[in-house]
Design brief:
The chain is α+β, with helices and mostly antiparallel strands. 50% of the residues lie in helices and 15% in strands.
């Protein structure tokens, strides 16, 4: 009878491992898990690329469209200046309108820069004492031309004394600018209220921007603070980048604050920002 080759034990005396069904099952399981991870990663990257492409398309649209009225205003002024009956008052009025158009255009460009800095981790905030009431007054004044154009009444409700928080002044201004712009965009030309108060127990200031617009559903409230997300009503066209509220949340978190929304369909919306009060030790 023919004999097969003899099995030589390993030098340390351990038994020789023989591949079996259990090993094959484990290998198949590892392959399935690896494939699942690859599929999930491909889906994530595909979603990221689609979001990027959608953002770039909206950005190109939003940055190109404002150039039309800017160029048109320049052409009107140029033609008027060549007329013999040209009046200086018309030039001043036209330049004021042109300045406002350019300022709004720069705000759009700054949004893009903020998105880039935040996503790359390069956004830095200076924490200094800031009177949010003073910032609110400046923001309201800056909105005067837009208020006249949109026909929205913008009211300001402030306490009788300064409300000083620990934060970045430019970041707070941008937060207010975004929230007021959002209220004017979706507030259905109804009155808007910017209100500032104190919560002594939590040692924070609370900034509330309220509108009487169409409101936001519970499902939309859960996602409007995400990047490239917007709560769009039926029949409504896409407007803006869909990053304003995401930037607000990022800036609030950068100052150890928070933002939330209280709303229901048909009842308007109130966005509330909480920022930590400046310690008395930090005041001069």
């Amino acid at each position: 009878m023919a004999l097969g080759p003899a099995r030589v034990p390993p030098p340390d005396g351990r038994p020789v491992h023989q591949p079996g069904a259990a090993g094959a099952d484990q290998t198949d399981q590892n392959i399935r898990e690896h494939n699942a991870r690859l599929i999930a990663e491909v889906a994530r990257l595909t979603e990221a690329v689609e979001a990027r492409d959608a953002f770039l398309a909206v950005a190109a649209h939003e940055l190109r469209n404002p150039m039309t009225p800017i160029i048109g205003r320049i052409q009107i002024l140029a033609r008027a200046a060549r007329r013999p009956d040209f009046q200086v008052e018309r030039l001043v009025q036209g330049l004021d309108q042109l300045e406002w158009l350019i300022a709004r255009y720069l705000k759009r460009a700054n949004v893009l820069l903020d998105v880039s800095r935040i996503t790359s981790g390069k956004l830095t905030l200076d924490r200094v004492p800031v009177d949010v009431c003073e910032v609110a007054r400046e923001v309201i004044e800056n909105f005067r031309p837009l208020r006249q154009h949109a026909g929205s009444d913008l009211a300001l409700d402030l306490p009788g004394e300064p409300v000083v928080v620990s934060g970045d002044r430019l970041a707070i201004e941008e937060i207010l600018d975004n929230l007021v712009s959002n209220a004017m965009k979706y507030g259905a030309n109804e009155p808007i209220l910017l209100r500032i108060g104190l919560e002594e127990e939590q040692r924070c200031a609370v900034i509330r921007v309220s509108d009487s617009g169409s409101g936001i559903s519970a499902d939309d409230q859960a996602r409007i603070f995400e990047r490239f997300e917007r709560a769009i009503q039926p029949g409504e066209h896409l407007r803006g980048f869909g990053v304003g509220l995401w930037i607000v949340r990022q800036l609030c978190q950068g100052m150890e604050g928070s933002v939330r929304v209280d709303s229901s369909p048909g009842q308007g919306s109130t966005f509330s920002v909480s920022l930590p009060l400046q310690s008395s030790k930090g005041l001069k």
